[in-house]
Known about the structure:
The chain is mainly α. It has a domain at 16-90: Orthogonal Bundle (Protocatechuate 4,5-dioxygenase, Chain A), CATH 1.10.700. It is 52% helix and 0% strand. It is built from nine helices and no strands. The protein has helices at residues 18-23, 25-33, 37-45, 47-51, 58-66, 69-74, 79-88, 93-98, 105-113.
Amino acid sequence: MGLDKPYLDIPGTTIFDAEQARKGYWLNQFCMSLMKPQNRERFKAGERAYLEQWPMTEAQRQGVLDRDFNALIATGGNIYFLAKIGGTDGLSFVQIVATMTENDAEGHAAMMAAGGRPIEGNRYAHEWKDHE
Length: 132
């Protein structure tokens, strides 16, 4: 990592930058393949076999099989591409994102409609030193 990335100091946040894009290239290409109905059918007919056709890491494949969207983001997934997996499963975007939080879909939608998560606690990690 050659560039200064001050955003790495934000707890619980993964920024989709060039490094993440390189890491997740094949994962995201797999996700985009799910835009075609015939590929969604092939995937649903044999998920592991379909995933083996893509040069992803085993952690990425397992993340897809587990539908662990947080793990997929950590391994280079872009949420907008990852949504294709949830869509293949018949999930709405709110349902997908809710799996990544402590809320269910209704709770997540209500929180967002009320203005999003509260600002308290949304700080850089180095700012927490005064609260240790």
